[in-house]
Amino acid sequence: MKKMVILCVLVMCFAFAAAAEEIESRDLTGRSDDGLLLFKSEDGKFQFMLDGRINLIAAMYSGNENPMSNGIEVRRGRLGFKPVWGDWSAQFDIDFTGVEAEIKDMWIGYGGFKNMMITLGNHKGQFSVEEVTSSRFITFIERAIPNAFAPDRRIGLSVTKWGKNWRAFAGLFGEEAVNADETDTNEALNYNLRLSFLPLLKDNAFIHIGGAFGHSQPNATDEGTVRFRARSETHVEDTRFLTTGKIKKVASWDQYGLELAASFGPVLLQGEYMSVKVNRLEDEIDAKFSGYYAFASWMVTGEKRPYSIEEGEPAGRIYPKKKSLGAFELAARISNLNLNHAESEIMGGEGNNITLAANWYPYPNLKFAVNYVMVNNDEYATADGDYPGNDDFNVFQFGFYYSF
Amino acid sequence: MKKMVILCVLVMCFAFAAAAEEIESRDLTGRSDDGLLLFKSEDGKFQFMLDGRINLIAAMYSGNENPMSNGIEVRRGRLGFKPVWGDWSAQFDIDFTGVEAEIKDMWIGYGGFKNMMITLGNHKGQFSVEEVTSSRFITFIERAIPNAFAPDRRIGLSVTKWGKNWRAFAGLFGEEAVNADETDTNEALNYNLRLSFLPLLKDNAFIHIGGAFGHSQPNATDEGTVRFRARSETHVEDTRFLTTGKIKKVASWDQYGLELAASFGPVLLQGEYMSVKVNRLEDEIDAKFSGYYAFASWMVTGEKRPYSIEEGEPAGRIYPKKKSLGAFELAARISNLNLNHAESEIMGGEGNNITLAANWYPYPNLKFAVNYVMVNNDEYATADGDYPGNDDFNVFQFGFYYSF
Amino acid sequence: MKKMVILCVLVMCFAFAAAAEEIESRDLTGRSDDGLLLFKSEDGKFQFMLDGRINLIAAMYSGNENPMSNGIEVRRGRLGFKPVWGDWSAQFDIDFTGVEAEIKDMWIGYGGFKNMMITLGNHKGQFSVEEVTSSRFITFIERAIPNAFAPDRRIGLSVTKWGKNWRAFAGLFGEEAVNADETDTNEALNYNLRLSFLPLLKDNAFIHIGGAFGHSQPNATDEGTVRFRARSETHVEDTRFLTTGKIKKVASWDQYGLELAASFGPVLLQGEYMSVKVNRLEDEIDAKFSGYYAFASWMVTGEKRPYSIEEGEPAGRIYPKKKSLGAFELAARISNLNLNHAESEIMGGEGNNITLAANWYPYPNLKFAVNYVMVNNDEYATADGDYPGNDDFNVFQFGFYYSF
Lengths: 404, 404, 404
Prior knowledge:
Porin; two-stranded antiparallel sheet; homotrimer
């Protein structure tokens, strides 16, 4: 009940803050921007963008002891609409790849205050810069294993404010839009903050320092649960060897994240450290888990890396310097996720992965990616006891990305 | 078989009636009409409208004896296309909020005869003016409990004809587009009529008097069933305390509805009475149920209420007089649904609800709504025996509506 | 693993073959082409087409011994996007009629080489000209029973090359995009070839001679299976009387198809013969099945039949000569599917159907169809033992097709 009051008050603030200016109807001009479809009024106050994505992946496993299925998959088949009218904007995104059509971003935003965006609806909390980065722009085929700590999209209200070289995000979130698993953590209440500073932000270089904090509570009832788990940076094989299983008697959990990213011309360095503390009820001992990753990427063909201060992400389309060749990128990543915590007797497994990657962008809206992932799992990485642990294997995977 | 022949004959009439005129291709101009996206040829004969809706709701329950979950929900996430070419038009609407994408309006219409529309495909039968009113335009967050009697969209054929101050609708319907529950009443054959008269219809005032009749048969087989049920004007908590359960040995059922609506400037008064008679097989006694609601609404900021004679609904976008403030509305509703019928020994429960509402329209395509619903259920309102009856509770709910 | 390497090599070839030319952003002009919505740049290099389809069917059964349900159905409710930018094109199609939204065409194509298209993603293998023909353009309400042998859309890579009077297609395919049934044949690896020659191809006449070969393997594991089955050219009643059941111990299967189509003015003649040989493991005897159909169609109102050398299909919109009347077509088809093979002791049943059809096209994007199907099933047509065989029945069905 207290939660509801807080949310309603915030929403009311949002509502009355929105002093609608006088805008009327406009003629729109269609435009195909490097494969995008955009409709825009002459003064730019009305826009309508279509956002479609096709992402195919293929994966092949070797060295595995547990059975794994090589295969091909439509990883993302997403359709979205992004209207803008005056100070207002909205997003309506659906993904069609699962057994059910899934609501992704579905929110409305008010941008009538300077350098500020208020967002209401289903959207991402902001914990981890790699999670915040759109799947269109991530460097590797899959996000790194510590992504296990990043929350999914939830229905909530958030405020983002930014300046010339800083950005702050605060959000309050409730349930997931689709309650696929009622017993899961999707009923949690969650709030989180994310701050980023840019000591350097030039046309062809930037340094991003960020930090995030999140606090979550399981839904009301006496015995809350939470679970952290990760696939081994591959999605065709669905097994999540690293998993805490459902931790019981959970009062709440706190998350801490540190982000570093820097780019100088065609080079991008990025790393994160994340930890989570699970506060437990009664005599249960609090549990702690952590993870990190670091990667380096080099645009061999010399393209610079975009950075968006509004979105707080070192991401955007790559525009090949030589249009006839496209752009070419090489990258390497190490990652760690440690779900073992001896004191609380939760041994969910630890993984250490190394990834080598090559990307080719023949056109700003196309990407071909090849990744080689070397997975090193410890003896507790048993998918909650379903499989023998200590399964070290390699993944050769191919990804194809297209967005219109 | 007889049904099929009737349908085919009607469809053939529809087909041969459609004397296609000579229209060719046209250039279209994009236009954003207060947040809508519309493409239109200069002569207006070709149009293409995109219809998107995001509807979020939050609900908090108090005073309840049975367990109820406060929560947030994406109530509607709908995407539609509305093409018009010459005398023809069509609608293609999908809702993405459930566990499956659900077909809503999916029909084609022929409007080549004066003041007439012939519609073939999945669309609503017209029983109850509140049901007919688009979810974009209803005054309260949820429709009133007697909506239990209103039929869902079904595949069918209908003819609508209207004059300056009257409108008539006749439809013949078969199955629902999605047969989620094969044992439910979705296989029924249904026909219905709806008539409305407007003794007063001016720019800023109208009086609507309407009546509707519907006749339905369960699917063939020996033992047909039907069920009437309603949520307590809230959707987050899914329990339908008021329900007849599946009534067996049903030959057919007849529905009667009376509609009154009147608006004078910023005031709107609306009420309906509905009743249903279930005709039963063998020695079973026929069952009778009824319901009603009445509401008053006042646009505090003085906006008039739109009325559409073509659609037969007192509804449309509210255009705020003061654009910087938006429009503000206050409303109150009483409603009753009585699913008790002692003679036939079907005691589905009776509910009496009172709702207070405040709506704010910062922009013609945005609405923030707050409702306070006082639910008064009788001892038989047990959700078919699942819960103790006599649970009187209050709902505080918040709704946000956006359409593009 | 070998499969994966082949696929990756092919994909790489595709990638590096694509020498992107220099194209930039363009203004687009909206255009409604006989009910279509198309956005196009002046030079035609950028295009964006919306492809929506509504297909309703109604069916009535008579003479059947097994129970069959008359009914109405939304057979197809499909939404697609077809962007073209320079040498690249893509398709993004979703069908919403089932219990889940289903990915249909979802691919990207490169057309930078003369008279050639390279396609990567979810698309159809090309076996059977009737299968290749879009559901918007097929002559009868349902494809003929030998369609049991045509493969579904799968994720794969294909190359199509055509000349003035010939066309060649080669494709390599893996899994289906949606793995609804993991135990089914959807994990198979498949490659197929299709060749077509046109000894005659004029504006108002053509002769198409085609042949196709396909080779498929069930997924890895020791005991592969495959199943061939067909509904009796009706979709409302879902029973597939003709079915081999899951054939076990399958090493691979080979498919052979022969296609003939010829049109002279308003007349279209078309026929196909298909056979499949299932190569089995251990001592099991190889199984052989076959099927054929032939039809004749006559546009009573005199319209000619389109043929697309690029698509390799005798299909396209019918533009009525007299716009006020529309176009009218009469057609008849015989079809046979023989899933009996005594030697291997697989007796899946044999069916012989005769169909009479009448189609009316009031507008190029609208079609009303009536079909009368006389089904003659043998004693083994038992839906894998679920029903008594020898059920000969008639189907009267009605179809309505709309595309925008």
